[in-house]
Write a structure and sequence with these properties.
It is built from 13 helices and no strands. By secondary structure, it is an all-alpha fold. It has a domain at 201-346. α2 crosses α13, α4 (61-113) packs across α5 (115-126) and α10 (251-267) packs antiparallel against α11. The radius of gyration is 25 Å and the shape is globular. The two termini are 28 Å apart.
Length: 346
């Protein structure tokens, strides 16, 4: 490499750039297959301590992998079961939410244009009592139908099978996978060091996810109690959703605040409708600036710019699923390259 001419370096850089673009394009085009596969790998890394705990009890590796897989499937199914009534309630409330948003906009416009003009515009724009008129029909047309759900079912089923298969076989053979990769990344004498890096990366991702889970659970509990105190319906469901969305940095809290604003417009009147999002943003501010840095920063010190860039890239690549895997992938990558303070090679 030291004897390379400038032209050769340019050619090599061009080849690397083309390969990177081709790789990212392939990841984008193969999203339906690669995304659940990567999610299964990340889930396997996160659940590795659970698998190790069963291993230490002397259980067969296949039984351990199957047990952890069943636990994961039951957990995800439980989340879907809890969120199902909330989703259908939101669909039923869409016409009313649209009316409340229009009413709020006209009320703010009334501060400038005058109450009489606002009332005239509302009568001409709405033309019916709230809750009776379903709107102009556009929202209903945009909602997924039963036919859409049936057409999506095979794809979702295939993705679920890919996820479960990847998770099962990764948990079953992950030690062998790490050893096989380590043997091919360096000389035989370097294999133990490289293998230690993989183990350190796995440990950091698992520790990060466990810590974030505890933080999110605390945030969800605090939000549930706060919403209960102001009379918000289904406060525990809102707290549970907040804990889930908080795994997706920046985007999750923003979506949660917007959802609480819409819910506040439906449930409360006047300025009281702003209470739910204000409460959540206050709790999220405390969590993001004090709780999470004090708990996560001890183990994982990552540049915020790297976090933001990683999140933007994976969200662009795979949407919400990319937002979930973005931070674990970043933490594992940094651990592999010894970016953290302690060196796993020492």
């Amino acid at each position: 490499m030291r004897d390379m001419t400038p032209n050769n370096r340019i050619y090599l850089s061009a080849v690397v750039l083309i390969a990177a673009v081709a790789g990212f394009t392939g990841l984008k085009l193969a999203e339906d297959v690669v995304a659940p596969l990567v999610f299964g790998l990340v889930s396997g890394v996160i659940l590795a301590p659970v698998s190790d705990w069963f291993d230490r009890r002397g259980l067969p590796r296949a039984l351990v992998a199957l047990t952890v897989l069943l636990f994961s499937v039951v957990f995800l199914a439980g989340i879907a079961f809890l969120l199902e009534p909330v989703i259908w309630r939101l669909v039923d409330e869409l016409p009313r939410i649209r009316w409340e948003i229009r009413q709020t906009i006209y009320e703010f416009r009334g501060l400038i244009q005058g109450i009489d003009e606002v009332n005239a515009e509302m009568k001409s724009a709405l033309g019916a009592e709230p809750g009776i008129d379903a709107g102009d029909g556009d929202a209903a047309d945009r909602l997924p139908t039963v036919t859409d759900a049936l057409l999506m079912a095979p794809l979702l089923l295939a993705q679920a099978v890919i996820f479960m298969g990847t998770l099962f076989f990764f948990l079953l053979t992950r030690t062998g996978i790490y050893r096989w990769i380590s043997q091919r990344l360096g000389a035989r004498a370097d294999t133990p060091v490289i293998l230690e890096r993989f183990c350190a990366a796995e440990s950091r991702v698992s520790r990060y996810f466990l810590t974030i889970t505890l933080v999110n659970a605390g945030l969800g509990a605090a939000l549930s109690l706060a919403l209960m105190s102001i009379g918000m319906p289904s406060p525990f469901i809102w707290g549970f959703v907040a804990a889930l969305l908080n795994y997706v940095l920046y985007i999750g809290p923003a979506a949660m605040a917007a959802s609480l604003l819409l819910a506040g417009l439906v449930v409360f009147d006047g300025l009281a409708s702003l209470l739910p999002p204000v409460i959540f943003l206050t709790l999220n501010l405390i969590e993001a600036n004090f709780v999470t840095p004090s708990m996560v920063g001890r183990h994982v010190a990552v540049n915020p710019l790297l976090v933001f860039v990683s999140l933007v890239f994976w969200l662009w690549l795979w949407g919400p699923l990319g937002g979930i895997v973005a931070i674990p992938i970043l933490v594992a990558t940094l651990a592999l390259f010894d970016v953290f303070g302690d060196n796993p090679m020492s």
